[in-house]
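User: I'm writing a tutorial on reading structure tokens. Could you give me a worked example: one chain, its sequence, then its tokens, then a sentence or two explaining what the tokens reveal?
Assistant: Sure. Here is the example chain.
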Amino acid sequence: MFRRFVVATVLAGALLVPTAGAVFAHECTIVSRSDQGDAMVAAHSPKWDILTLETIFTQILPGELGQAPLTPSQLQWALGAAAQAGVPSSFVTRTDKTIGEGSSNPNLADGRGLDHLVDVYGNTVAGIYFAALQL
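And here are its predicted structure tokens:
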């Protein structure tokens, strides 16, 4: 089982390069913001919204990659694998624009501030998705 997961992760990484950019390119999040800060922004600003890992596994990845959405049992396995890998179950993302786009700020995409989800979690999430499809 572990070997299959590793193989799927490697294959997903190879497949992810051309496709995940389209999937998550506009999905920006501020990784240094607290859970409470995320909740407040999502509740009080129409320009930020909550994107769940469940939505990524059942709608975004299947639609962008031309694969099937995960079944309920595959989804439960994938959510557990993502939690073990340190992937949050949801993200607060900007919905009206790609923040930081065109910026030369060296602090962007450093894992501590403003980041694109694909840069931080893309390979991990895609690997889990493809591994779950094999269950």
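What the tokens reveal: The chain has five helices and four strands. The mean pLDDT is 75.
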